[in-house]
Structure formats: structure tokens, C-alpha cells
């Protein structure tokens, strides 16, 4: 298994950060570049592994099989995240008592106290990953240790109970094997895996959770955007913020997502867009100085030609307001390896993209995330009426666009068409 001691992107981000602070970005952010995906305890955490009780263990996993099996699903009208398999994972931690026994149980309702902190203060965090049926018949996860490490980081930010990410991954794999028959054997389809942790403590005080619950749900899914690899348009939201320096935009905590619904719904009504692209750092006097951040659930990439003809693939650096996506890092590594363009993590201003679009140098825009993998964007719509279009879309040259080649390369690893350390086979 891969051991993500330190994410390569963190080092990349660090070098680019120093240049971004030179450009006038808040210098204090430089110090905040963290161990994004480190599965190892940081010095301030101390070495918890010495404390044998700090985690549950996969070897203790209890498997209780469901007496009933649901009828087969219809892949044609599978709506994302609405169908669930026969089983789920469950384990609870109580401060003072430690972890209970981890279990794979029949899928069913959770019982929570009405005063549970999660219901009042949003004390919850989650992960999103996928299991794929490989062309060789084997079940694969994609860089799952990164999701486990990120979940641990998010949980720590909310002071939920700590655990060993490798033990959770081992439990997750067993859950997947129990519900293996649910995995659609079809390209574009997978089981979406949703681990989550929340405070089940029944106390109305805003305080460290006395009880934490970890669960994992499995949901068979098809392509995320019904339009497939067709480019979508995004509304550039220059009013609402998704994240800010010193906030928790770099953690997958529930509180980051609830406030994004209203902007998304309003943009859909007004502009017909399915997603919102957030910006930051603009001012009234200089609206075009705003920098692109990301969507509510996708990191953003801009593929541009510079005036000298050189091609650049740029994405916002991990300065604390960007969620460090597993797909984002994979795209960066793949594109760097291909060597056909310069790959940069840095600020991307509205002015830069507008100019590139006006001069026909905005080649492609795409989002990245586990759900959609790579999603091409054809146009950006601003509230002032301006629309920035990309020069070529996968429609023009389906095989040739950078986004579709990246998508293909990732799918090849995920479905096991190529052997790669990122594809982790379970069976
Ligand atoms: C989950 C998520 C992403 C994508 O991350 P992946 O690890 O690539 O799935 C991007 N942005 C936000 C805000 C997210 O929550």
C-alpha cells in the first residue's frame, strides 16, 4: 500500500506559495501550508500509536449479514447517491470509554439523540471515494489512503475522536467485499463510498464531542453529470464566499457545504448553470483582481496559452481555502509527467482568464473531483453579463482535449486497464 508520508503537491504548493506571497497575497498563509494528507501523527498530536486504545481495529470487525437482499438496480435511471447497498459500517467512540467494536451491519436508520451536536452545530465531516469493477474482474479503490488521511484531518479539526486511518481502510475494504455484488460492471459506473464522522453526543453545549460515530455508506452510481463529458457552464459568484483564510475550506466538514446550496439554486434560476465557481480577494474598485477558487465540490483547472505560445495548466494553490482534492493532485502529477505544458499552482485572476478568453488563448477549463473525475467547462458567466468561453471543447476534438485525455488516463487506472500504484485492488 502507498504510504503518503507527505504529499508531493504540498511541496509544490509550498514553493509556489512563496512566490504568491511575493505577489502580495497574505504572507501569513505561507505558514499554514500543512501536511495535507499526512497519515502520520504530526508532532503536536504526539505519537498516538503508542496508545493501543486510540483506535478501533479491523481485526475486531463484526459482520452481521442482512437477512434480506434488495432487488437488482436499474442502471439506466440511477440517480447519484440515492440507492444504497444492503450493508453499512458503524463504530462509536465515547470519551472515557474508548472505541466500541466496529461492525458491518444491515443498512438501516441511525438513531441519534435529538440533542446530538451534529443536528445543532454541524459537527460532522465526510469523505467521497469510489470503488471500481476492473476489466480484470478485480475491485479497485483509487488512492484510498489519501481519503482516510484527509478524513482524519477533518475529524481532528472538529475534535471528533481520533483513529488509525489504516484500520478504517481495512474495515472499508471488508464492507465493500460484503456488498461486492452491488458493484456495476460497466464503464462510468462504480460504487460511491461515503465514510463520515459526526458528533452523536447529546449535549447542547458547544464543546468537544463526548461521543463520535463513524459510518460508511455504499451507493452504486453512474456518471455524475447527466451530460457526461459535455462542457457545462459555471456561474462566477463574486459575492458569496465558500472559504476564507483561517477558515476550514481545506477540510471536508459539513459546515462548508450547507451555505453553498442557496448560491447554487439562485445561479441555476438566473443563469441556468449547474454549479457555482467561487472567487476571492476582489475589491469594489478592482473586481477583476478577484481570484478563482473552486466549485462547491470540484477543484478548478485553467489550460491557457500564453502570449508567447507556451501552454500552461494552472490551478489555485493550496493556501487553506482550497480543498486538497485527490483528483486535483492526480491531475497535477499526470500533467507534470506528460511534460507537454507547464503545470502551475498559483493565483489565477479573473482578469487573466478574461484576457485569455478575449484573445482566444483560453484553451480549456475543467473541474476535478471523485464524483465527476474530470468535468469540462465551456463557459464562465459573470453577474455583470460577461461570458468567458474556452477556445476548444471536447465537442470539437473528443479525443484530443487535455481534459478528456486526463479523464481517460484516470479511468484507465481506476478500471485496471493499466497497472498503477494508485489503483489499489481489494481481491
Ligand atoms: C471533495 C471535494 C473536492 C474534490 O476532491 P476529490 O478528493 O478529488 O474528490 C473539491 N472541492 C471540494 C470543496 C470538495 O469537497
Automatic annotation (TrEMBL):
Transferase keyword on record: yes
Q: Which biological processes are named by the entry's GO terms?
A: amino acid biosynthetic process; branched-chain amino acid biosynthetic process
**Top enzyme class:** transferase
User: N6-(pyridoxal phosphate)lysine (modified residue): where?
Assistant: 252
Q: Which reaction does it catalyse?
A: L-valine + 2-oxoglutarate = 3-methyl-2-oxobutanoate + L-glutamate; L-isoleucine + 2-oxoglutarate = (S)-3-methyl-2-oxopentanoate + L-glutamate; L-leucine + 2-oxoglutarate = 4-methyl-2-oxopentanoate + L-glutamate
Q: What is its EC number?
A: 2.6.1.42
Q: Which domain of life is it from?
A: Eukaryota
**InterPro entries registered for this protein in UniProt:** Aminotrans_IV (IPR001544), Aminotrans_IV_CS (IPR018300), Aminotransferase-like (IPR036038), B_amino_transII (IPR005786), BCAT-like_C (IPR043132), BCAT-like_N (IPR043131), BCAT_family (IPR033939)
Q: Which GO terms describe its molecular function?
A: L-isoleucine-2-oxoglutarate transaminase activity; L-leucine-2-oxoglutarate transaminase activity; L-valine-2-oxoglutarate transaminase activity
What the entry lists under SUPFAM superfamilies is as follows: D-aminoacid aminotransferase-like PLP-dependent enzymes
Cofactor(s) this protein requires: pyridoxal 5'-phosphate
Q: Which UniProt keywords apply?
A: Amino-acid biosynthesis, Aminotransferase, Branched-chain amino acid biosynthesis, Pyridoxal phosphate, Signal, Transferase
Q: What does UniProt give as the signal peptide span?
A: 1-22
- Family recorded in the similarity comment: Belongs to the class-IV pyridoxal-phosphate-dependent aminotransferase family.
Query: What is the protein named?
Result: Branched-chain-amino-acid aminotransferase
